[in-house]
Each structure stands twice: as structure tokens, then as C-alpha cells.
Description:
Blueprint: H1 6-13, H2 23-43, H3 48-51, H4 67-82, E1 85-90, E2 97-98, E3 110-118, E4 129-137, H5 147-150, E5 159-165, E6 169-174, E7 179-185, E8 190-195, E9 206-208, H6 219-229, E10 240-241, H7 247-257, E11 260-263, E12 274-275, H8 276-289, E13 293-295, E14 312-313, E15 315-318, H9 320-333
Parallel strand pairs: 1-3, 9-10, 9-11
Antiparallel strand pairs: 1-2, 3-4, 4-5, 5-6, 6-7, 7-8, 11-15, 12-14, 13-15
The structure holds 2,5-anhydro-1,6-di-O-phosphono-D-mannitol and magnesium ion.
Magnesium ion (MG) binds near residues 118 and 279.
Amino acid sequence: MSLKTLGQFIIEKQNDFPYAKGELSRLLRDIGIAAKIINREVNKAGLADILGEYGAENIQGEAQKKLDVYADEQFIEALTKGGECCYVASEEHEGGIDLSRHSVSKNGKYIVCIDPLDGSSNIDLNVSVGSIFSIYRRKHTDRPITMDEVLQYGSEQVAAGYVIYGSSTMLVYSTGKGVNGFTLDPSIGEFCLSHPEMQIPLDGKTYSVNEGNYLKFPQYIKDYIKYCQMEDSETNRPYTSRYIGSMVADLHRTLIIGGIFLYPETQSYPQGKLRLLYECNPLAFIIEQAGGKAVSGVERILEIKPTHLHQRTSIVIGSKHMVEKVEEFYAGHE
Ligand code: AHM
Ligand code: MG
């Protein structure tokens, strides 16, 4: 079988867009480049102490950075140099970054929201981590960007995706016409199409939630978890429980074999823990594009009105029928 690289695939699909001038394609290419550089560092994370302590200098005389800070810098650099993006909202920055002050990005038509390295509690443990990105198109390119333009509904995303740094590194993305997955072939340094037209099964056998928080969950979530654990041969219960604690890894498994992932509101996180703009919206976009569903409990994730950059939401996401079951439990408790 002949290989198709991410670059070749992006060019092939470019004409899918009514406004295609190659800008979105170039933006996706820039994100792919940042992902490869981050992958290189994530892969040698265990060597950090050998090459030099964080805060010290390594043998090349470069300061060792925490990986999430490093990942953030790589994305911002790639987006700045690429010139297609005029504004970045990142988990690593309290305020957004207006790139339009750089001459190359002055006319950038896109806004990018990123979680540069998600699952940070897993970085030092050799457990999969990921990067998540979400892309919006500017509404008015003839005036300075405003927060209103940045805070668009998730349903207005023009593209979204994630990179998983796992046993192999993959980039999965959608431009609103299905979902495609690419695996990094380290021997040629290219992401190659390995999972075309990904579809999430309508049902699954796995539920994914931090059960340590069980006592703090709302009642309908507690009831759903008990439902997952009850025996029923017709619906293949009890379901299996899997929780990595890296949303990208948990969602990647859910996308491939089906299942459900839940991060509900708790007493410690009354709004939910995960962030709407750069965690929930992009992953909801991907899962919906693959035939799944994503809700906060009350409403569709992609229809939540964003009011600030680091807004949090509860999330229930995954196989369509499983998410609908949670909605039934929710409706029953109203
Ligand atoms: P982070 O952005 O600080 O890494 O936090 C997000 C992560 C998700 O990847 C994961 O699903 C969740 O936090 C795990 O949280 P918890 O440890 O509370 O279960
Ligand atoms: Mg995160």
C-alpha cells in the first residue's frame, strides 16, 4: 500500500472549502510541524535529568524547560511564523496572544485555541499525553480583533484535532467533513494516513471517569455509573472501566473502540474541570464528526456560549447511544 502523508492529504482536501486559498491548509501544516517537534521532546522526556536539571542548562547550553511550557512555545512559534493565525488562546496563558502585531500574521484569518500538552500529571510517568487544537475563522478582517470574535461557539469551529504522544504518535483532525487519523512514521519523519474516515461505534463497553470523585458527583451521574456496573447480558453490562487521566488518550480509545468519557461537575469543580475552548470544544467536534455525541449534561457542548477564555464545563462524550443514556438519567432527575 502506498503511503499518503499529512501534507499530501491536506493539499488533496484543500478544495473542500468554499474559501479555499490554501490558508487553512498551511495552518494545519504548521500545527503538524509543531507536533513533530513536541513529539521529539516528549519522547526523550526521561533523559531530561541526564541532560540537565530543569532550570539548569543542558549540554547545548539551552535552558531545560518544563514540557508543557516547551510545547506552548513550539505552537506559538509555528503559528507566528506561518502567518495564517492572528490570535492564539492557550491553556498556558492567562490572556490571549494577539499575533497581528507581527507583520507576517497581520492579515491572518484564523484564531487558534490550544492545550499544548494535555494530561500534564502523566508527563513524568511515561503515560500518554496529548496536544489539542481548535481553529476558528475571523469574522471581520478589516478591524482589530475583539474578544467577541475569539469567543465563538464550538459549532463554528472550522477545524479541530489532537495529537497523542503514545506507543505511537498520531495526529487526528477534522475540518467538518469526517475525521482522519495519521500515524507518525519516525523513519521518514512524516505523519501518514493510517485511520481514514474514523467512525466511533454507536455503542461501547467501556466507561471512563475518575471514580475517586464518585461521592462528589451529581446524583444522575452516580446512578449512571451504577447502571454501568450492573449485570445485563442484552446490553453487555457490566461495562469495563478505563481511566488514564489524559483526556486525549481516554478520548482516543473511546473514538476507536466506542465507550463513554465523563468529567462531571464536582464540589471541587462546580463548573466541571475541563476547559471549553481548548479541551471540550475540539474533542466534541471530532467525536461528533465521527458520529458520536458530546453534552454537558444539560446541553450540547458545541452550543455552549463561551464567556471567557478559560471557561470550564462538565462533559459527557462518546458513543451516541451511551451519551443518550446519560441524558435519560439527567432528564429523570429534573
Ligand atoms: P491538564 O490540562 O492540567 O493536564 O488537566 C486536564 C486533564 C485531562 O487530560 C484529564 O482528563 C483530566 O485532567 C484528569 O483530571 P483528574 O486527575 O482530576 O481525573
Ligand atoms: Mg489540559
